[in-house]
Design goal:
82% helix; Helix Hairpins; flat; mainly alpha; 9 helices
């Protein structure tokens, strides 16, 4: 029964992607609230079932403590994202971006539980933190950046070396800051993409190892069957020869 609620939760968490954008539009506020509340109910239910399982079988569910903590934090964040008003104000945007980051962590924990507990969540958190700080810096230093969202967009396009040209640094301070953003942001984004690629490579390597081990077990099973067949063939022949030798001895 636990697998079905977890799959329902993952599907409900996918609905937070359109809810993030709909929350900025006053005309779609009710739809955004409904999507966030659906994800909240699914996540809260799975977190509650994890807590019940840990209470009943504490020895066999030691690894679920971190899952329950993440589920509790995500449930609170989803509920806040649902009840807060619409708009793209900096405080609302920061909260909903934090909710999106927690959703990514929840998805990674469910799909890649063994490799996800490595460095990828920390690198994602580092990347989000660096982009957030760079967005704040551009919001403070660049007069053409009027909102925190514009600062984040300029920080991302600068760190990714895309440079669309819709917003560009215009003051000496923001230009010097842009150099810092390129050096740090591009390095962090490269680490994140490399870590994601390493996760998929490790997954493929595990599949290959499982196939090799399965073939080895199949060959060993075949060898055991052949050895058992040879033993069965030798035992009757040895049994027939023993009485003959005894009879020959008595005759002589």
């Amino acid at each position: 029964m636990h697998g079905l609620p977890r799959r329902v939760e993952l599907v409900a968490l996918l609905a937070t992607i359109p809810a993030f954008y709909l929350a900025m539009l006053s005309s779609h506020r009710l739809v955004s609230m409904a999507l966030y509340l659906t994800a909240f109910i699914a996540t809260a239910f799975v977190t509650w079932t994890d807590a019940v399982a840990v209470h009943r079988h504490p020895a066999s569910t030691r690894g679920r403590h971190g899952q329950r903590q993440l589920g509790t934090l995500l449930s609170v964040s989803l509920l806040l994202s649902a009840v807060l008003p619409e708009g793209d104000q900096p405080d609302l945007l920061i909260l909903r971006l934090g909710t999106a980051a927690l959703v990514i962590l929840r998805w990674g924990e469910a799909i890649l539980p063994s490799s996800w507990r490595g460095g990828l969540p920390h690198l994602l958190g580092l990347g989000i933190g660096v982009l957030g700080l760079c967005g704040l810096g551009f919001w403070w230093l660049e007069p053409r950046v009027h909102t925190f969202g514009d600062g984040l967009w300029l920080a991302f396009t600068t760190a990714a070396t895309v440079g669309y040209g819709d917003i560009v640094p215009s003051t000496p301070a923001s230009k010097i800051f842009a150099v810092f953003v390129v050096l740090t942001g591009f390095a962090v984004l490269s680490l994140v993409t490399a870590s994601i690629a390493a996760v998929w490579v490790q997954t493929e390597e595990r599949k290959i190892e499982h196939e090799i081990l399965r073939d080895l077990h199949h060959e060993l099973r075949g060898l055991r069957d052949e050895v058992a067949a040879l033993r069965r063939e030798k035992e009757p022949a040895h049994g027939r020869n023993a009485p003959t030798s005894i009879t020959t001895g008595q005759t002589s």
